[in-house]
Amino acid sequence: MKKTLIIVAHPNLETSVVNKAWREQLSKEVEGTVHDLYASYPDEVIDVEKEQALLLAHDRIVFQFPFYWYSSPSLLKKWQDEVLSFGWAYGPGGTKLNGKEFMLAISTGGPAEAYQAGGHNRYSMSELTRPFQAMSNLTGMQFLPSFIEQGVRFLSPEQVAESAVQLVAQVKK
Ligand SMILES: Cc1cc2nc3c(=O)[nH]c(=O)nc-3n(C[C@H](O)[C@H](O)[C@H](O)COP(=O)(O)O)c2cc1C
User: Fold this and answer.
1) CATH numeric code, 4-172
2) Residue 79 region by backbone torsions, left for phi larger than 0, else alpha for psi between -120 and 50, else beta
3) Is the Cβ–Cβ distance between 123 and 131 less than 8 Å?
4) Which atom of ligand 1 has the smallest separation from the CA of 73?
């Protein structure tokens, strides 16, 4: 079975509905590690060596986060800037992530129909997540289909629970 690293980036999991439910379900059911970035680094000083060791110890990497301004919360961007370094993740000798799998799990406030040409947010999630696709490509990881839950503030508690079950199934596939 694949060892999976879930990197959760939510600045306030206490008030979260969806990402909290996802995190709890994944912790129970997925073989690997659920790594909560904001809890690990309250001062936002990232231990790069520790993060790189974590990556090396897993086969599949998942970024889980709420969509903030059409991207991830800022600590996950900082994590990428520092952990995915030249000569390690890309560039000469930068082959450490080659052959791993990469997946996104994203919740959005906006509903699915808003994320298309002519819709309120104009662009699709596949278009808006291109920087992650490009990162995956440059680091030699295989980009798997994303798990995206939309219009999350309208979900009932049952739908939130069901979403967590579906995410686990996709992460384990
Ligand atoms: C700073 C900020 C930026 C946000 N930007 C977006 C956005 O660009 N698109 C969107 O659909 N929702 C946006 N939202 C809504 C969040 O995605 C939504 O609240 C989150 O997915 C809910 O997940 P949670 O229950 O785990 O907190 C934003 C929320 C905040 C606080």
Assistant:
1) 3.40.50.360
2) alpha
3) no
4) 1
pLDDT at 2: 86
Confidence of residue 50 (pLDDT cuts 50, 70, 90): very high
For 18-25, what is the mean pLDDT? 98
> Burial code of 109-138, b = ≥16 C-beta within 10 A, e = fewer?
ebeeeebeeeeebeeebeebbeebeebbee
| DSSP sequence for 1-14 | ---EEEEE--TTTT
The H-or-E segment that residue 118 falls in is none
Ligand 1: atom nearest CA of 15 is 27
Which residue's C-alpha comes closest to atom 24 of ligand 1? 16
Domain ranges of the chain: 4-172
CA of 130 to the centre of ligand 1 (A): 18
Q: Which residues line ligand 1 (CB under 6 A)?
A: 10, 16-19, 66-70, 107-110, 152
